[in-house]
Design goal:
The complex is a heterodimer of chains A (285) and B (305). Chain A has 285 residues and is α/β, with parallel strands linked by helices. In chain A, 39% of the residues lie in helices and 20% in strands. Chain A has helices at residues 2-16, 64-71, 89-92, 113-118, 122-125, 133-145, 161-174, 191-206, 221-224, 241-244, 247-254, 258-273, and strands spanning 26-35, 38-47, 53-57, 79-84, 96-99, 179-183, 210-214, 227-232, 234-240. In chain A, helix 11 packs antiparallel against helix 12. In chain B, helix 2 (36-56) packs across helix 3 (61-85) and helix 11 crosses helix 12 (274-304). Classes of the chains: A alpha/beta (285), B mainly alpha (305).
């Protein structure tokens, strides 16, 4: 009973709060997260935009992964409220897909690529029930979509990093969710895979979905994302890439790492001067 | 035949079902790189058993069981605590805890011996398989059906434990696989990996505690690790791995028990320790599996070249 009351309470409170956008797929209110009593994220307030690719950017240890994990309930919050379409996570979870950080996956596990993709359907299949041929057929279609169908029966550890990441993308896509979280989907990935993943994400956006991506390569932010969160324990800046992703905000986020910043500002000058040929910026580093 | 039904039948059934339960769980210990937990728990139970004797003056099976269970769980808690605060790797933490617990158990036994308690660490290592048999009343008919009806309670407990473990795996198959493979994503499905870790530990402890009294800790540890390790070399699919590991366990137990009973290599042909013989056979199976997988890999490389 208390739970239900809490739920109604938060629904009324967040959706009616003037500082929060009632249409947002995810609203975060006054969230603080701590590891062993040491706060890593302070007082986060955020509304995810509708139909958008959002980059979460910040220096190492800024709490980028922690931000995603705390929103999804993987890490406990010290305080704060997170709502998805005005609902608590437990109610909304079937509409949310997640691609975890590479390091948290046990890649040696004896499991086939197709079985991994089928995991995206577990929420739909439900407890105690088995994966059927119909589910496998659907999983296969999404493997085709990421051009991995010929690897369906391979063990997941036999694949390269980029191929594994594409399989995980297929697993997220097969869920046909409305909100996607991806933790460094481009780490250990070749250039071809990176562009094919980003194309899939752009298609999701065109279908009206929101994708929140933890990203560390500053040179590709303007090219990939519509919106950005600059994070360093707190949200330093957030909003449209065109207005938010500038040298001043980056300096505030990255602090003393000036040489890096000079590189970035150079690359951004390049970007703004020839915004049509954005791709050349990726060779700055 | 009659001596098989009265002497060996119940003992063999007990090892088979305890062995299959341990083997099933062992597959997941292996995949989670937690194989040493079996080692750790099976040694840590000793002080719990002795204290249970001392406090209750009872040798009742449930008293032993609860004492062992508590000690096993306590040792797991301490292991986690040492990993977190002692800054040692998990393997070292387990080594520390189970050797100290076992040592404590040995000291407690010496303390207890002054109270004329017939208990020694040996029975923990080798088990007391010879204590389960069926003693037919005079005139009672001896056949398979009467042998099954008269199975000792230890054997029934072993069967129940196996059914319990197998049905847990059957019911939560998808979820267990997901938690072992990708714990972070399992949260999004509403699963609780930390709760699973704890539950899994309890089931493993239950299985070990219900086994070691009969078959001894050495065989329990081998059954938890070796068949799964052999099967892992033969396949890259979790369900096939489980199947192969069960096959290895069953063949190893039947063959090992038979060789022990006929007393192969024994100087005067007396029967040998069954637990020891089975463990040895399981080890030989692993050796064969290693040779086979090397041979197969060589063939694959040759084919690729």
């Amino acid at each position: 009973m208390k739970n239900i009351l809490d739920r109604i309470q938060t629904q009324i409170s967040l959706r009616s709060k003037p500082e929060h956008n009632p249409n947002s797929p995810m609203s975060v209110h006054a969230m603080t997260v701590a590891y062993n009593d040491r706060p890593v994220l302070w007082d986060i307030d955020y509304d995810a935009p509708v139909a958008s690719l959002v980059g979460v950017v910040g220096p190492n240890g800024a709490g980028k992964s922690t931000f995603i994990k705390a929103c999804l309930g993987i890490l406990p919050k010290l305080s704060g409220i997170v709502e998805f379409w005005g609902m608590p996570f437990n109610v909304a979870r079937s509409r949310i897909a997640y691609v975890p950080q590479r390091e948290s996956v046990e890649w040696d596990f004896p499991i086939s690529v197709l079985e991994v993709v089928c995991m995206g359907l577990y929420a739909e299949i439900g407890l105690f029930k088995r994966v059927t041929a119909k589910h496998k057929a659907r999983a296969r279609r999404y493997l085709e979509l990421v051009q991995m169908e010929q690897f369906a029966d391979r063990q997941i550890s036999e694949l390269s990093g980029g191929q594994q990441q594409r399989v995980f993308l297929a697993r997220a896509l097969v869920k046909e969710a409305d909100l996607y979280f991806m933790d460094e989907p481009f780490s250990g990935v070749d250039a071809v895979t990176e562009s094919s993943i980003i194309n899939s994400l752009k298609e999701l956006k065109q279908a009206g979905k929101t994708v929140i991506v933890v990203h560390h390569d500053l040179t590709t932010v303007s090219e990939y994302f519509d919106s950005v969160i600059l994070l360093n324990s707190r949200i330093i800046a957030q909003g449209e890439v065109s207005t938010t992703f500038n040298t001043e905000n980056l300096r505030k986020t990255y602090g003393g790492k000036l040489t890096l910043l000079e590189d970035i500002s150079k690359s951004m000058e390049k970007l703004s001067s020839k915004s049509s040929t954005v791709k050349s910026s990726s060779d700055v580093f | 035949m009659n001596s098989f039904l009265t002497l060996d039948f119940s003992a063999l059934l007990a090892i088979l079902f305890l062995g299959m339960a341990s083997t099933l769980l062992g597959n997941f210990l292996l995949l989670r790189k937690e194989s040493l937990i079996g080692d750790s728990i099976s040694h840590s139970v000793l002080p719990g058993i002795v204290l249970a004797y001392l406090f209750t003056d009872s040798r009742h099976v449930y008293v032993v069981f609860i004492g062992a269970l508590l000690a096993g769980l306590l040792s797991s808690l301490i292991i986690n605590w040492i990993i977190k605060f002692g800054r040692v790797e998990p393997g070292a933490a387990m080594g520390i805890v189970f050797s100290i617990f076992f040592a404590l158990g040995v000291l407690l036994i010496e303390q207890a011996s002054s109270r004329s308690l017939d208990l020694d660490a040996d029975c923990l290592l080798y088990g007391q398989l010879e204590t389960i048999f069926w003693l037919p009343k005079s005139g009672e008919e001896i056949n398979l059906i009467t042998a099954i009806i008269n199975l000792p309670s230890d054997v029934i407990a072993a069967v129940i434990n196996f059914i319990f473990v197998a049905s847990l795996l059957w019911l939560f198959w998808k979820e267990i696989i997901l938690i072992c493979f990708d714990p972070a994503s399992s949260y999004v499905l509403g699963l609780k990996p930390r709760l699973f870790d704890m539950g899994f530990l309890i089931v493993v402890t239950l299985s070990i505690v219900s086994s070691f009294k009969l078959v001894g800790s050495i065989l329990v540890i081998s059954l938890l690790i070796v068949p799964a390790a052999s099967a892992r070399l033969l396949t890259n699919r979790i369900n096939k791995q489980l199947f192969f590991s069960l096959l290895f366990a069953i063949v190893g137990i039947l063959l090992g028990y038979y060789l022990a009973v006929i007393g192969i290599f024994a100087p005067s042909g007396q029967s040998l320790n069954a637990a020891g013989m089975i463990s040895t056979i399981l080890g030989l199976q692993l050796l064969l599996a290693i040779i086979w997988s090397k041979y197969r890999n060589n063939k694959v490389t040759l084919a690729l070249n």
